[in-house]
């Protein structure tokens, strides 16, 4: 019984580490450190929902079949995530074409938006009776909440705008430039977040789709 409990505790610990730790960035270039910071800030669920399928996608639907949460549906041959997505990244890991990616402009946009004073704008736009007082803890907490709301809405709208723009030929040509392609690969979430499932499940996934992954 004691050994069984230890096994359960070790499994819980393993999953906790996978959920809360990114991979080691030791020796990684500065851009990867910046991306890791943004990913950690946004969280794995948000990053998963930002994922899009590239032109490499051939609508094989492996991601839909293998998603452990049934969070992917195929619409017009394009995989779409539902609200059931837990951010496990099994779809990214299992894709035989490695066709999932986070749009580069979305990440840089999310970084740029960090420096905008959303709290002050919300107070001014809605004429809220809140006086600026940087020494007040109460004001700081209210400002932080307002800023968070403004940031979340802005990231959502920006991501939608990027999704629409990505269908234009001009932006597709820019995305196919060699230097841009290299940067796009650097955004692969598997470089920063581990898959949230056991090695045995991952092995079974590899056998099913028949390809060698990043690990």
Task: Describe the protein's architecture and organization.
Helix content is 57%, strand content 6%. With 215 residues, it is mostly helical. The chain has two domains: 1-102 and 190-215, no CATH class; 104-165, no CATH class. Strand 2 (72-75) and strand 3 form a beta hairpin. It is elongated. The protein starts with a helix and ends in a 6-residue tail after the last helix.
Helix content: 55-70%
- Give the N-terminus to C-terminus distance in angstroms: 34 Å
Order of helices and strands: HHHEHEEHEHHHHHH
Largest sheet: 2 strands, antiparallel
Strand content: 5-15%
Give Rg in angstroms.
20 Å
Unreliable sequence segments: 1-9, 210-215
Number of domains in the coordinates?
Answer: 2
Short summary of the structure?
The chain contains 11 helices and 4 strands, in the order αααβαββαβαααααα.
What keyword list fits this structure?
2 domains, mainly alpha, 6% strand, 4 strands, disordered N terminus, two-stranded antiparallel sheet, 215 residues
